[in-house]
Amino acid sequence: MGVSTANRRDCAGRARSAGSFVVVLGVLAAAFAVTAYVVPRSARGPAAKEGHPVAPAAVRSVDHGIDHSVVYELLGEHGARNVTYAAAGSALAQQAEVATPWSARFTRVGPAGRTGFYSIAARNPGPGALRCRIVVDGVVVAEKTETEPDRLFSCAV
After folding, report:
1. Does 156 have pLDDT greater than 70?
2. If residue 20 lies in a helix (H) or strand (E), which one and from where to where?
3. What is residue 80's three-state secondary structure?
């Protein structure tokens, strides 16, 4: 009698699994070694000399930005569907259906000297035109009109 073929196949399968595991571990170890070698020493922080502790880095003050008055508007004859917009705090807000004219007003804190992200999307139920507009601090920053019925479109800046 000999060893059954089922047992031989089972052992071969385990050997292949163990071999694959060893290869994966080897690749991970090599990646770690390369990363440790390539990352510059300055990125890991200053080295402490013997007897001289490293002083903590100075904390940079955070610029909290300024308040921006934001108004999203939808103008048209037949309302709008699937209205989605980036609201206060960059949270997404959604409404399934709105009557037009429609607007959402809020204040968002944005970085000083940089433009924030503002976006509104809606579906034109048609017929006729549906217009979206984004007004930031009293200035129209984006405007778009869609005339095709049942078409999703957006204004963004």
Report:
1. yes
2. helix 5-38
3. strand
- Residue 97: band (very low, low, confident or very high) from pLDDT cuts 50, 70, 90: very high
| Sheet strand arrangement including 119-124 | 92-98, 80-86, 119-124, 151-156
d(CA 126, CA 80): 9
Instruction: Give me the torsion for CA of 36, 40, 43, 49, rounded to 10°.
Output: 90
- Per the CB < 8 A criterion, the answer to whether 134 and 85 are in contact is no
User: Phi/psi zone of residue 65: left (φ > 0), alpha (ψ -120 to 50 degrees), beta?
Assistant: left
Cis amide linkage into residue 127, ω under 30° from 0: yes
Smallest CA-to-CA distance from 87 within 115, 119, 114 is with 119
